[in-house]
Amino acid sequence: MEKVIIAKNLSKIYIKGQFNFDSLKDLIHSKFRRTEKSSEKKSYTALDNISFEVLKGDRICIIGENGSGKSTLLKILNKITYPSYGSFVISDKMVSVLELGAGFHPEFTTKENIYLFASIYGMKIKDIDNIIDNVLDFSELRDFIDTPVKKFSSGMHIKLALSIFFNLKAQIFVLDEAFSVADNNFKDKCVKRLLDLNQDTTLIFVSHDYELLKKICNKAIVLQKGKIIFNGNLKDLIKWP
Amino acid sequence: MYGDLLKIFFLKDFKSNFKQTVLGPIWFLIQPIFSTLIFSILFGKVAGLSTDQIPKPLYYFSGIILFNLFTELVNKNAIIFRDFKDIFSKIYFPRIIAVLSVSFNVLLRFILQLALLFLMILIYSINGINIKLSLLFIAMPLFILLIVFIGIGFGLIIACYTIKYKDIQLLLTYFLQFFIYTTTVIIPFSAIPNKYKTFVLINPISNLIESFRHSLFGIGNFTYLSFVYTLLFSVSLFLIGIYLFNEKQKTFLDNI
Q1: What is the pLDDT of residue B200?
Q2: What is the ipTM of this complex?
Q3: Which residues of B touch A (CB under 8 A)?
Q4: Is B91 within 8 Å of A80 when comparing Cβ atoms?
Q5: Which domain, by its residues, includes B81?
């Protein structure tokens, strides 16, 4: 099978305490109080020398406790932050929702936000014209097409964001804790949508809902304190972290 | 591929400026018109400052809109990381699109104001005021472009150094308020005492305002030497700004 993501020796190190000054006053203040302050500046390794590969068509889940490095890993793969060391190659078009609703403009209507959101993901306006009906059907928000999204409930926000996301043109989809807040009916619809993805589409899924993961995914990467402690078929994973 | 995103961002900025306003884009014109009125009365009538023999409204309006183009570009670009933080931290797209979309919006505002200036020139000409368009008229878009370069460059440099400390951003408002008095928006170069002329000449914004007026009315100071200096200054500042922005956007999310 073709490799769509190759990551080599990825590390991400954050410096703790380096940027905690809110104003010039705090900075000057801290320069004069040079007691144990400087020794407090420790680095924090969010990701520690991680290497892995993802094949085309994989349904891969990333599992780990809070602070194990899942989000950092996804941020790096999405080019939102840069790795301190290491490199990676992604050879397909990848889209991801790291937080639902980011990118919406509250004053804009549903329709305007569909165009805004989809174009941030690199879609052309004429391609968005083609998906808009699917988005409205899937989200069940057709009646609210001219309503500003600031009037939406948080549930409606999520439905709209996910509906656009599922209609994006891409080969790799990344979902982070995505539909934990949606109602059951919509959740089922999303799960069905994910199960119906064709064999050439790759899925990376982050969740703590193990029943859901078992249903959708076939492979797993388990992270602990920034290191990979398991990488293989989901059914071979004996102990859930 | 991201051309459409630029278009949509541009429209988003444009529309969100006028959601919940009655007058809409007319606001683009109200501010410079009021400033022109106040300047004409205060500096023109009361203080009796020279306007190089051209009608006061034309003189002040042309300076004000050009100076506003500069300050607006600085202000909008200086807070670019803050304004786009939510999107930058969730989705990848070429970050320069954000710079372009806010800058094009400022430029659009300027173009509307420029159209009004041309209308004013036309009305004055019909009423018998002699306005000498100079040969430099064809270079006018270049003068505007250089102002844009300085505005974006300066704004982005501020943006890159105010991620950690917001103090400079607070200082910026005051700086820009006072900066207008060091330029030739109000006092023409010809009326400035000789011993201060050097200060005006090393200020690229003053040079560009003078050149701009020279191209429109045939007045003001224009020398090729100061133009070459201004050209080099503007392009370098722009390139430095873009370079710093490009470097900073890789790490800024780790820093806020």
Answers
A1: 84
A2: 0.77
A3: 1-2, 4-5, 7-9, 12, 15-16, 19-20, 86-93, 164-167, 250-251, 253-256
A4: yes
A5: 3-255
